[in-house]
Amino acid sequence: MNQEKIINVKNLTKTFGSFTAVKSISFDVNQGEIFGFLGANGAGKTTAMKMLIGISKPTSGEAVVAGFDVKTQSEMVKKSIGYMSQKFSMYDDLTIKENITFFGGIYGLSRIQIKEKTAELIYELGLEEVADKLVSALPLGWKQKLSFSVALLHEPKIVFLDEPTGGVDPITRRQFWEMIYAEAHKGTTIFVTTHYMDEAEYCDRVSIMVEGSIEALDSPKNLKKQYNVTSMNDVFLKLARNVE
Fold this sequence. Notes:
Rossmann fold; six-stranded mixed sheet; four-stranded antiparallel sheet; alpha/beta; 27% strand; membrane; 244 residues
């Protein structure tokens, strides 16, 4: 992992009427880093991520993602990143192969690239026998793995994962994190939101959001040391109590 900043956020804020969902947050993410964006449901994680991926305009503050301003260059941001949403993002009424082809087209790949990437992805995931079956036939864990792989089709510099392991069993969660590690090892930056505190241990650094604000940001090891606890869950509980 190098120290080049691929995400730079300064005083980013999002309000909805009188409610402030994201309160003037600031942080940087290094290229090739696995950056965990943690917090309980409703803490503001998804709202913040939507601003970073260019689909929601900040009320105030600044953010530069992959060299592009999220306010003025949101289309360039979208082309430079991969994104896997909280809800499964493949189309159930298309086959596995058709989904890959469809998203390859959206990401601007040529027909030859799509053909090559489709064959490569199906082989890597071991889906040769079911490639022509509807995605709806796949178990949730396999859908998540496919969705992650499709988010990487165009070889983005950063991939944003919003609660990627929600609802899957512990074994599948571990396998999914192995895929994340493999991708980060290639130099791709992984920005992942989760409310599973044990998953924080897999990240290089984590920020913890409580009620719209970042209350802590460091490596899991340093945070546990700072708060004199043995798990990230205990760190989170201490932070939540401090805010109350």
